[in-house]
TrEMBL record:
CDD domains: EAL, GGDEF. Residues 208-341 form the GGDEF domain. GO terms for molecular function: cyclic-guanylate-specific phosphodiesterase activity. Residues 350-605 form the EAL domain. This is Diguanylate cyclase (GGDEF)-like protein. It comes from Nocardia alba. InterPro entries: Cyclic-di-GMP_PDE-like, EAL_dom, EAL_sf, GAF, GAF-like_dom_sf, GGDEF_dom, Nucleotide_cyclase, Rev_trsase/Diguanyl_cyclase. SUPFAM superfamilies: EAL domain-like, GAF domain-like, Nucleotide cyclase.
Length: 622
């Protein structure tokens, strides 16, 4: 800044500081100090800010730079309580302090001498004033004597005011930035700050892999419900503070809301190291927390994913970590899972299914396989269960487990279900016309959504009429869950179906929560014992007891029973011994395409060599 008159000096400083923000504040202040040093012909100048709460004064800028700055720098942060007399006087000063002789404030003089090597200084210390209180100081130091004219002092006050304004603006900006990037409850970073941080970490050229830990507290809701929301909040705050304390300041810890946290350590780590770290996190979170009178602890599930800078996007890493978290939680909580290639395959499949399912349902990619159900005593085929598959263009034949849930979650269940019912009925009618399947029932699985759709009964009626099938040759299989969820609605639909003679079976029985008495209220014909119980018949006494009681209760309610998942002769013999004759399973036949099942239908039976005791044989009556 060229030498000018005093008034234009103020204007000059004002324009210099106008566009300044937090990032440019120090450099701009130094530029201004440099021109002031020059203008007032002093040895050096400094700008300090006051941290009122901590009672500290912090060096922001100085000019010229000191040739040697000790580390730590005794001038950077000074506690007022321990400061020399001049600094102490400046803490609350609202008027400039002018030291015009070298013998005032001797301790201050001594301090300056020690840190600058210059003896006997004169000083002008001009407070920065904001809302009537001192928020810092602008200081000028000069060797030998120097008198300050009133005009000069007034100009310095005006310049100090400009610095005070800048300080207030930067602090307000800082505060805004803080609010925008921090979680209210815990003071941890929020989602936005996390995304920004990850974006930087995953930029090309950065060190990797970048490990991301997705945390989800187990059963936090129970804590809120039983101890109150305040307790829940306190718990989360305490946990947040604990995490913060046990991680380095440069590690990112964010709370995404509720009981979800994400940690991205600054250190790079591979999968092995990340799993160890996940264990450490789990141990940390699992320690007890005092909430009011109670001492509580929560387990935490941790999903881990690694991102490679330049390759993986932020949303990929977060989705993977979230996916791993799901898998970690699936074990009932307090689990750890690192995103693996196997998960990736499943993940891609899920994406693919979501994208392509809609067209697949309408473009003929769906096929039905049929699994025979026999009377174990004679091998006679009593029913065929239609099981849907997706002939995927690149992934081969997909089982329903890979897409039925997706269909249900994406409003496609109705469309898929209609296709299944129409195709199964059409195929079944064709067999009937050709004299096959005369005494066989066609079993069709129905999604819960279908069952509660308003026109379900009419649609079935239309299809049966179209193909000339009597209702009693059709059995719809519904899951236990739907029965429990919407008993009233379900009952209405089932009654409508019953009027047409359509049979109803409860599938996978034993896995839901319905008691048989629940079912008594519904017009149900049979239950299919879940294959989980049947598979191990012969070596699990528990399962034997359950199967026995299901069969007994079904009998007393007059319901039929079918054993699913018969894989061993032992299981088949056990079922027969318990009086359950109808069964389905790999031992008897796997699900197969329509053409293959035709051969069995022609025979009418599937011979089984079960070596049954005499009493178990005889002619099927079911
Ligand atoms: P589900 O109705 O209980 O069907 C029986 C499942 O058990 C079939 O699996 C069958 O292949 C399998 N299975 C049969 N015998 C054995 C055995 O001995 N051992 C073992 N381990 N498994 C056996 P799939 O075809 O994968 O179907 C799975 C589930 O998908 C079905 O269970 C059913 O709930 C659902 N599903 C199948 N087709 C449809 C459909 O068209 N619509 C709806 N909504 N769901 C369907
Ligand atoms: Mg079924
Ligand atoms: Mg089943």
């Amino acid at each position: 800044m060229p030498r000018r008159n005093l008034d234009s000096l103020v204007t000059q400083v004002a324009s210099e500081l106008m566009g300044v923000d937090a990032t440019t504040m120090v450099a701009a202040s130094e530029r201004v100090l440099a021109s002031l040093v020059d203008y007032f012909d002093v040895e050096f100048a400094y700008l300090r800010h006051t941290e009122r709460e901590q009672r500290q004064t912090v060096l922001i800028a100085e000019w010229p730079p000191r040739p040697y700055v000790p580390d730590p720098d005794p001038l950077r942060v000074i506690d007022f309580a321990e400061a020399d007399s001049l600094f102490l006087a400046s803490e609350n000063a609202v008027e400039p302090i002018i030291v015009s002789r070298g013998d005032e404030y001797p301790d201050y003089q001594e301090m300056i001498r020690q840190s600058t090597g210059m003896p006997s200084m004169v000083t002008a210390c001009v407070p920065l004033i904001s809302r009537g209180v001192s928020t810092g100081a602008l200081g000028f130091v000069r060797r030998g004597d120097r008198a300050w004219t009133t005009r000069e002092v007034n100009v310095l006050k005006a310049i100090a005011a400009l610095f005070a304004q800048l300080q207030a603006r930067v602090e307000a900006e800082d505060r805004l930035r803080y609010i925008a990037s921090h979680d209210d409850l815990t003071g941890l970073a929020n989602r936005r700050a996390l995304l920004e941080h990850m974006e930087e970490r995953l930029a090309p050229g950065n060190a990797g892999p970048v490990a991301t830990f997705f945390l989800d507290l187990d059963r936090l809701k129970a804590l809120n419900d039983f101890l109150g929301h305040n307790a829940g909040d306190n718990f989360i705050r305490t946990l947040a503070a604990r995490l913060r304390k046990n991680f380095a300041p440069e590690d990112m810890i964010a709370r995404l809301g509720g009981d979800e946290f994400v940690i991205v350590p600054a250190e790079t780590m591979d999968a092995v190291a990340a799993e160890l770290e996940a264990n450490r996190i789990q141990e940390l979170v699992g320690r007890r927390v005092s909430v009011g009178q109670e001492s509580v602890s929560r387990g935490v599930s941790v999903g881990v994913a690694l991102g490679v800078p330049g390759e993986t996007t932020v949303s990929d890493v977060l989705r993977r970590a979230d996916h791993a978290l799901l898998s970690a939680k699936s074990g009932g909580g307090n689990g750890i899972a690192v995103f693996t290639d196997a998960m990736r395959v499943q993940f891609e499949l899920q994406d693919d299914v979501e994208v392509n399912l809609r067209t697949a349902v309408s473009d003929g990619s769906m096929v039905l396989h049929y699994q025979p159900e026999v009377d174990l005593r004679t091998g006679r085929i009593v029913a065929l269960e239609a099981l849907v598959r997706w002939q995927h263009p690149t992934r081969g034949l997909l089982p329903p487990g890979a897409f039925v849930a997706v269909a249900e979650a994406t409003n496609l269940a109705g469309e898929l279900g209609r296709w299944v019912i129409r195709s199964a009925c059409s195929q079944f009618a064709d067999w009937r016309r050709r004299g096959l399947a005369a005494n066989v029932v066609i079993r069709i699985n129905v999604s819960p959504v279908q069952l509660v759709s308003a026109d379900f009964v009419e649609r079935i009626e239309d299809i049966l009429r179209l193909y000339g099938i009597d209702g009693s040759s059709v059995c719809l299989e519904i899951t236990e869950h739907v029965v429990v969820q919407d008993l009233v609605r379900t009952r209405l639909t089932l009654r409508g179906l019953k009027r047409m003679g359509v049979q109803i079976a409860i599938d996978d029985f034993g896995t839901g929560y319905s008691s048989l008495s629940h079912l008594k209220a519904l017009p149900v014909d049979a239950v299919k014992i879940d294959r989980g119980f049947v598979q191990r018949l012969g070596d699990s006494d528990d399962d034997l007891a359950i199967v026995k009681s299901i069969i007994g209760l079904a009998g007393s309610f007059g319901l039929g029973v079918v054993g699913e998942g018969v894989e061993t002769p032992m299981a088949a013999r056990t079922l027969v011994g318990l009086g359950c004759y109808r069964a389905q399973g790999f031992l008897i036949a796997r699900p197969m395409p329509g053409e293959a099942v035709e051969a069995h239908l022609r025979e009418g039976r599937i011979p089984l060599d079960l070596d049954l005791p005499r009493a178990g044989r005889g002619v099927a009556s079911s």
